């Protein structure tokens, strides 16, 4: 049976442009795809016929040969053996299959737009911002105003890159594909289109403000809510506050990385806070009370038991940091630092020497230590 004219197969006129041929092919391929015509046994053959026709007519060189010689251009004696696929002996099968897949399912997979050209809009880059806050701000939460340098959509052209906000046009070199093909022997080489740089579109009259980029550098002021309980390394994501997308694509995200400054009084350990409080050796020996600060700005009186040693810890329940996502608070640990007095007067020195002579049995920790030392030395001598 004689082959049908390729233009008739696609339902296109002989003088149709590349864009018109592509549109006709998409229409026919979708109409005749076997998955949509499971009850029609002839649909698969018709679908292959449509694919074969478009494989020839989409290529400028093959189309010119077909327009001049018809089907004979791809039969024996015209540069290809009979029975081979038109235009390359099967060497272009992979790219042909890719084209069919993208043309049929591009709308659902983000490959091409309704006009047949690839969707060249791309998502903007994500940005990172390092934000330093105080421990008090991490405790109570706060709202911070930050200034972020970024690429924003050009207001003059609405992000299109074209003067007056006009839409970019399909690249005439690659017909919106973003890539061009060249035959080298038995192989088909595919490379990025040199005219549009792979975008598939060009701007005829570039915007004077953004020079055709569609984006301009700006410094934006943003308000960031810092939740209570954050710590160094906490990441806050602001959706859509990153760089503007290219060709109308979605903006990226802005990630705020928190760093909590060191505090002069409190040391943080997860949800717990540690506070080192100096007490006189008299208070440590006799007992008493000491007033300590809390992270919420309040004060707490802590009872110091008589005979407290340096390093003794006491716990204040729920006076630590709040959990980031709720669930209570940590504790505040008070560590006693017994302070040795300095710049003693003669009378003070006299009283201390008198006290030392009366307190041979009042140092249990020292007595225990030196007993162990004596045993160690005796063992070394033995």
From TrEMBL:
Keyword Zinc: yes
InterPro entries: DnaJ, DnaJ_C, DnaJ_domain, DnaJ_domain_CS, HSP40/DnaJ_pept-bd, HSP_DnaJ_Cys-rich_dom, HSP_DnaJ_Cys-rich_dom_sf, J_dom_sf
Record-annotated J domain positions: 5-70
Keyword vocabulary terms for this entry: Chaperone, Cytoplasm, DNA replication, Metal-binding, Oxidoreductase, Repeat, Stress response, Zinc, Zinc-finger
Cofactor-binding details, from the entry: Binds 2 Zn(2+) ions per monomer.
Stretches annotated zinc finger (CR-type): 141-219
A single GO molecular function term of this UniProt record: oxidoreductase activity
Record field: transmembrane: none
Cofactor annotation: Zn(2+)
Family: Belongs to the DnaJ family.
Function: Participates actively in the response to hyperosmotic and heat shock by preventing the aggregation of stress-denatured proteins and by disaggregating proteins, also in an autonomous, DnaK-independent fashion. Unfolded proteins bind initially to DnaJ; upon interaction with the DnaJ-bound protein, DnaK hydrolyzes its bound ATP, resulting in the formation of a stable complex. GrpE releases ADP from DnaK; ATP binding to DnaK triggers the release of the substrate protein, thus completing the reaction cycle.
Domain remarks: The J domain is necessary and sufficient to stimulate DnaK ATPase activity. Zinc center 1 plays an important role in the autonomous, DnaK-independent chaperone activity of DnaJ. Zinc center 2 is essential for interaction with DnaK and for DnaJ activity.
Protein name: Chaperone protein DnaJ
Species annotation: Pararhodobacter zhoushanensis
């Amino acid at each position: 049976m004689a082959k049908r004219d390729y233009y008739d197969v696609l339902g296109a006129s002989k003088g149709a442009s590349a864009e018109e041929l592509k549109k006709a092919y998409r229409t026919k391929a979708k109409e005749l795809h076997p998955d949509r015509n499971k009850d029609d046994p002839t649909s698969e053959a018709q679908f292959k016929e449509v694919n074969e026709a478009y494989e020839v007519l989409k290529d400028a060189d093959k189309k010119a040969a077909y327009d001049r010689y018809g089907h004979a251009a791809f039969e024996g004696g015209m540069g290809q053996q009979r029975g081979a696929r038109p235009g390359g002996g099967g060497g272009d099968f992979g790219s042909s299959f890719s084209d069919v897949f993208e043309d049929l399912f591009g709308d659902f997979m983000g490959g091409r737009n309704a006009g047949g050209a690839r969707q060249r809009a791309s998502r903007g880059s994500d940005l990172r911002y390092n934000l330093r806050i105080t421990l008090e701000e991490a405790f109570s939460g706060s709202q911070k105003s930050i200034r972020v340098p970024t690429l924003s959509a050009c207001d003059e052209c609405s992000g299109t890159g074209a003067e007056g906000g006009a839409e970019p046009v399909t690249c005439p070199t690659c017909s919106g594909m973003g890539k061009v093909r060249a035959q080298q022997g038995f192989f088909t080489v595919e490379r990025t289109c040199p005219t549009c740089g792979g975008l598939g579109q060009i701007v005829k009259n570039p915007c004077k403000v953004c020079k055709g980029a569609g984006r301009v550098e700006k410094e934006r002021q943003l308000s960031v809510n810092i939740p209570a309980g954050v710590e160094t390394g906490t990441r806050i994501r602001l959706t859509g506050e990153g760089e503007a997308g290219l060709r109308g694509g979605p903006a990226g995200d802005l990630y705020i990385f928190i760093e909590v400054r060191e505090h002069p009084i409190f040391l943080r350990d997860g949800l717990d806070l540690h506070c080192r409080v100096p007490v006189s050796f008299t208070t440590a020996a006799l007992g008493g009370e000491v007033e300590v600060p809390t992270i919420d700005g309040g004060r707490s009186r802590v009872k110091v038991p008589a005979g407290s040693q340096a390093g003794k810890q006491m716990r204040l329940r729920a006076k630590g940091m709040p959990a980031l996502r709720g669930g209570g608070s940590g504790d505040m640990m008070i560590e006693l630092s017994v302070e040795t007095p300095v710049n003693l007067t003669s009378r003070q020195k006299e009283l201390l020497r008198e006290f030392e002579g009366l307190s041979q049995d009042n140092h249990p920790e020292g007595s225990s230590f030196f007993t162990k030392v004596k045993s160690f030395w005796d063992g070394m001598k033995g």
